[in-house]
Design brief:
With 261 residues, the protein is α/β, with parallel strands linked by helices. Helix content is 46%, strand content 15%.
């Protein structure tokens, strides 16, 4: 993103969960271009290694860890490894997420829990493992959580996702208060619908639905990964130094459509 100063994140380590695909991939490439040491972590090695290679081919620095954000022991092991290997983390982006479409009456308890575990518990575990070290070291840091607008106005056919993202919003504000004293900032970005590998496979499979959703967005299009990059980089940078506990909707006005029409 050339609106940001070259080298803006030089000397900083940026950890992005789910950095191998979609929004996480776009974030990883952007932070890499801005000079950060990029650390990406998710379950599948293939997408992660592709992103690491792309960043390195472009002259940046990156490394990867495989982990499931639901696995507390592995989260702790990976964060400990990052502290040993690259000296810690300056920015954590909790981007890893899961979703699928199902009417609430048909959703199994396990399906509901699965999405809560990935999105909300995973965000908690990652934040705790990193935040605990920041507090111990008296070190400043910035967390950006990737929430969604469905946290705010209900989430038909995605009860699990909406509930998890609402939980993330609340957790964002709680951690902002608990950890503000040592200069740790915690914010969230709430994208509207975004076309990505993961969402195209699970949510945006029906062209008529995509058209209907798009028609309801005042700015006339889905949110893009690039839109998300702009706000996350801003929040993680000095320009966002006095923002904490903020929940920034990034949706072209999508969440307001019922008020407008
Ligand atoms: C506006 C939008 C805002 C947000 C957008 C996004 O987040 S886009 C991001 C999009 N990107 C992603 O989502 C990427 C990551 N997503 C994933 O890895 C998977 O989609 C995951 C979330 C299911 C987790 O996988 P996993 O291997 O850990 O889980 P598992 O396979 O073992 O299933 C657990 C339970 O869920 C059940 N279940 C699953 N699918 C369906 C369905 N379609 N229908 C009904 N149920 C379904 C499954 O049957 C099982 O329950 P059961 O039968 O035991 O009672
Ligand atoms: N697309 C959309 O419409 C919207 C998306 N969002 C949010 O944006 C974020 C990124 O989604 P998007 O890019 O669209 O989707 P993708 O499916 O492309 O990306 C999700 C990433 O999360 C990783 N991931 C999933 N589960 C786990 C897990 N248990 N542990 C570690 N990593 C995991 C996946 O990698 P792997 O499978 O290798 O683990 C994948 O790289 C999510 O939090 C999503 O909820 C918010 C609003 C709208």
């Amino acid at each position: 993103m050339n609106v940001f100063q070259a080298g803006l994140f030089e000397g900083k380590v940026v950890l992005i969960t789910g950095g191998g695909t979609g929004i996480g991939r776009a974030l990883a490439l952007a932070f890499g271009e801005l000079g950060a040491m990029v650390v990406i972590a998710a379950r599948r090695e293939g997408p992660l290694s592709g992103v690491v290679k792309t960043i390195e081919d472009r002259g940046g620095r990156a490394c990867m860890y495989t982990l499931d954000v639901r696995d507390e022991a592995r989260v702790e092991e990976v964060v400990r490894g990052i502290w040993q290997d690259v000296g810690g983390v300056d920015v954590l982006v909790n981007n890893a997420g899961g979703n699928f479409m199902s009417p609430a009456v048909a959703m199994s308890a396990h399906g509901f829990r699965t999405v809560l575990d990935i999105n909300l518990v995973g965000t908690f575990l990652m934040s705790q493992a990193v935040g605990r070290r920041w507090l111990d070291e008296g070190r400043e840091g910035s967390i950006v959580n990737i929430s969604a607008t469905n946290a705010e106005y209900g989430s038909p056919l995605m009860a699990h996702s909406g509930a998890s993202k609402a939980g993330i919003n609340n957790l964002t504000q709680t951690l902002a208060v608990e950890w503000g004293g040592t200069g740790v900032r915690v914010n969230a970005v709430l994208p509207g619908p975004v076309r990505t590998e993961g969402s195209d496979e699970r949510l945006w499979t029906d062209a008529a639905l995509v058209e209907r959703v798009e028609e309801g967005i005042p700015l006339g299009r889905f949110t893009t990964p690039r839109d998300v990059v702009g706000v996350v980089v801003f929040l993680a940078s000095e320009a966002g130094a006095f923002l904490t506990g903020s929940l920034i909707a990034l949706d072209g006005g999508e969440r307001l459509r019922s008020l407008i029409f």
